[in-house]
Write a structure and sequence with these properties.
The structure holds two protein chains of two kinds. By secondary structure, chain A is an alpha/beta fold. Chain A is 26% helix and 24% strand. Chain A contains twelve helices and 26 strands. In chain A, 47% of the residues are buried. Chain B has two domains: 46 residues, no CATH class; 147 residues, no CATH class. The chains are: A alpha/beta, B alpha+beta.
């Protein structure tokens, strides 16, 4: 995202906050509302500014004005009649320039901003990588991110796939080489030198054939690998999200792109035990496997992020689970596919509760075997963009845990209409944001409509920062009422919770979470909303209100069921009474 | 009434044998025999025109040679949801043009005086695990028709698959019997696949 767009987004964010506040008929002061997140000022020369004087002024008058203000002219651009001046007085150049603009002799004065050349690599097909940089800004801001971080060979990313062409000109330098199986002929000595249970596993392992050659016989795995870490700035082909990283090749899918659970489990366990911090899983299918889930838990317990494709059936994973992306393990990050116009790819699965974010997955150019390059479509192609950014984050912040990486990825998305209601984060991956020094907040509870009037409504969020999260607050407003701020407590590292008090029927509650770091930087989550509504069929009395969050229809069914049960019981009692009376009559007649 | 029911109930299993002229069981009533004869004659007329029971038509099985088979990913930018389709090439110019645009290289040699090229495409699929192959091509010169039996592979329900769009296809060099050149135009081609219970038709759209 360019600076202009960022300012626009921030302005809109501020506007939405202002709208939230201005419509509030509150007796509480406006200061109660979360402040607008501060905009980091662009860098500028500390003691310089650019000044344009009114054209009616003579050269002497200009000199006099500068001298009077304590400035010294360093250079002059006659074509635009602008002076570059040195500020001799102490203070912030921005403030000084702003103050000098009010001088009647000055048209404008502005700081001498410092512009850096963005890190654009010399890879010849870089211009075709729309996901890295494109004109309509549907890209992941890779170029902007590369100004901060280009990747590191210290970060190992496992490609659990069809293998990787480790000889490819654009992948070879970024292949992981098992340190325990390389050097002094260890590569081919037929021994398990590192004692990890695998012999001569230099680049990884082929679990489909159970051998040490994870060469790609399909092209899918090599393509995925290229998106994550095709060598950057090497004057060849393409560039990955990481210019450098260590790609661990773990093959479990055959040449036809198909594999089974036991081989997938083998690959997941191998990656976790051999140093991978991120596992890319551009595959899916099969039903729920408890063993596979346990393998993912094992990876989680080894602090490994498990990035998984949401699937290509164009369906809602909230209703029809797609594995492995639907496994409810804390380290699983599910990825949908976006196109070059920031729309949802026509084939992509979604899930308001089960798919975390979107990333570019249509027309993705990357590496294929035999030094080839091709463009493919799929959530398979979206997933490695996310894995790649996760690797960038780990290169920048090596000490992060998998959950902090996930908060950075999900908290920094660019929220887009196409993903707002059908993904957890509501947006598309943004690499620059994920590397930011600003605090990040994500995974805020999205409360469903409820018929519970007693409350409380529990809100949880996760936050991370390059320093320390100083404060986390829940901000909410009921209908057009006052804005309320509640300090959040932290029951576990990175986790923040607070409650919204119970509300009457008809209440519409909107809320968001805002976090601040120890440097004074603030970040605000998206705003969510839910309604407190009586179940259909009448307002229940007193405390009989059903507490069934997000399921008013269930509540209705339960009420109906209870009503039916009452009718049946009353019927039985009536029948019994009739029967007793009849027996009593018979008895009396017999007597 | 019960005889009618009997006839209808027996029809699916008995029709073929009747069509091939086998005698009926003894002991049936004349009415039943008349009904059986009627259905038998009808079956001869109807099924005699289908490939399932055609003893008099000679179908030449043509030698097939696989040029390339690909179960891999669909090239981005091509038709997003391509249907199953096929291509027939009778001349070198059209084949060379197609091959160049697809592979960017010179095509493999084909003697179009004695051979033709058949490409079968399975259409766009959401994942890996799919494949298409031609198992047999029969040529009926009199009818100017090709009958192609396909093998269509689909992933098992519990298979773990790459999540990229795929477009499986196969290209074959097909030899013609001597003296029976494939008509350049108006040749009909029908596709079928084998499955439990026999062959079933498969619809493939002809592409130019």
């Amino acid at each position: 995202m360019d600076q202009g767009m960022k300012r626009l987004v921030r302005s809109l964010l501020a506007l939405s906050t202002a709208t939230l506040v201005s419509s509030c008929k509150s007796k509480q002061p406006v200061e109660d509302v979360a402040p607008e997140p501060p905009v980091a000022p662009p860098a500028c020369a500390p003691d310089e500014m650019l000044v344009k004087f009114k054209p009616t002024l003579s050269a002497q008058q200009v000199e006099a004005s500068l001298a009077g203000a304590g400035f010294q002219s360093l250079a002059y651009f006659p074509a635009i009649d602008v002076h570059l001046c040195r500020i001799t007085s102490p203070g912030d150049a921005r403030v000084t320039a702003e103050r000098y603009t009010s001088d009647p002799a000055v048209v404008y004065a502005e700081p001498n901003y410092i512009y850096k050349a963005s890190a654009v690599p010399n890879d010849p097909r870089f211009a075709e990588l729309w996901a890295m940089q494109n004109a309509n800004d549907a890209d992941i801001d890779a170029v902007e991110a590369w100004d901060t971080q280009k990747g590191s060979h210290d970060v190992v990313v496992a490609i659990i796939d069809t293998g990787v062409d480790y000889n490819h000109e654009d992948l070879h330098d970024n292949m992981w080489r098992n340190p325990g199986e390389t050097g002094k002929g260890k590569e081919t000595n037929g021994k398990d030198d590192d004692g990890n249970g695998f012999i001569d596993d230099v680049f990884g392992w082929d679990f489909a054939s159970n051998d040490n050659d994870p060469m790609d016989d399909n092209a899918h795995g090599s393509h995925v690998a290229g998106t994550i870490a095709a060598s950057g700035d090497n004057q060849k082909g393409v560039v990955g999200v990481n210019w450098r990283a260590s790609i661990m090749a773990l093959k479990f899918l055959d040449g036809n792109g198909s594999g089974d659970a036991s081989d997938a489990i083998g690959a997941i366990l191998y990656a976790a035990q051999n140093g991978a911090r991120v596992q890319n899983n551009s595959w899916g299918g099969g039903g729920f496997s408890r063993a596979l889930q346990e393998a993912i838990v094992f990876a989680r317990d080894h602090n490994v992020l498990f990035v998984a494709a949401a699937g290509n059936e164009g369906r809602d994973n909230d209703n029809t689970p797609s594995y492995p992306s639907n496994y409810e393990v804390e380290n699983v990050l599910a990825v949908a596919a976006s196109d070059r116009d920031d729309r949802l790819a026509t084939f992509s699965n979604v899930g308001r509760k089960t798919v975390d974010l979107a990333a570019p997955g249509v027309g993705i150019l990357s590496t294929t075997p035999d030094n080839g390059y091709q463009s493919f479509d799929g959530t398979s192609m979206a997933t490695p963009h996310v894995s790649g950014v996760a690797a960038l984050v780990l290169a920048q912040y090596p000490g992060l845990g998998y959950r902090e990486v996930m908060v950075r990825l999900a908290g920094s998305v660019e929220v887009k209409p196409a993903f707002e209601t059908n993904t957890v984060s509501g947006g598309r991956l943004n690499a620059q944001g994920a590397l930011s020094t600003e605090p990040q907040v994500a995974f805020v509870s999205r409360l469903d409509n409820t018929s519970n009037v007693d409350g409380p409504y529990h809100v949880q969020a996760e936050a991370t920062d390059d320093g320390t999260i100083a404060t986390a607050e829940l901000v909410y407003r009921v209908n057009a009422g006052p804005t309320t701020m509640v300090g959040m407590t932290s029951p576990a590292p990175g986790v923040y919770t607070a409650d919204i008090a119970g509300q009457a029927f008809g209440s519409v509650v909107s809320y968001f979470v805002t976090v601040s770091d120890d440097g004074g930087q603030t970040r605000q989550s998206r705003t969510f909303e839910f309604q407190v509504a009586a179940p259909e069929g009448g307002q229940p009395c007193g405390n009989f209100a059903l507490t069934l969050p997000g399921s008013t229809s269930n509540g209705r069914q339960l009420l109906l069921g209870l009503g039916n049960l009452a009718i049946v019981i009353l019927g039985i009692l009536a029948l019994r009474r009739t029967s007793v009376q009849a027996r009593s009559r018979v008895g009396r007649q017999a007597h | 009434m019960s005889k009618h029911v009997h006839v209808w109930a027996g029809r699916p299993t008995d029709l073929t044998s009747r069509g091939c002229g086998r005698s009926l069981r003894e002991g049936r009533t004349r009415a039943a025999i008349r009904v059986h004869r009627f259905w038998g004659l009808l079956a001869l007329v109807v099924f005699g025109m289908t490939p399932g029971c055609k003893p008099t038509v000679q179908m030449a099985s043509l030698p097939l040679e696989l040029i390339v088979q690909d179960t891999g990913m669909k090239q981005a930018g091509s038709e997003p949801q391509a249907p199953p389709s096929y291509r027939l090439f009778h001349d070198a110019g059209a084949f060379e043009s197609y091959w160049q645009s697809t592979y960017g290289s010179a095509p493999p040699p084909v003697d179009f005086a004695r051979e033709f090229v058949l490409c079968v495409h399975q259409g766009t699929k959401p994942t890996g695990g799919y494949a298409i192959a031609a198992r047999e091509v029969q040529f009926d010169a009199a009818q100017r028709r090709l009958d192609c039996t396909l093998e269509l592979t689909e992933p098992a329900p519990d298979a773990m698959l790459i999540q990229a769009l795929t477009s499986p296809y196969a290209i074959y060099r097909v030899s013609l019997p001597t003296g029976q050149p494939l008509p350049a135009t108006k040749v009909e081609i029908r596709f079928q696949r084998e499955q439990a219970g026999g062959k079933v038709p498969v619809q493939l759209q002809r592409m130019q």
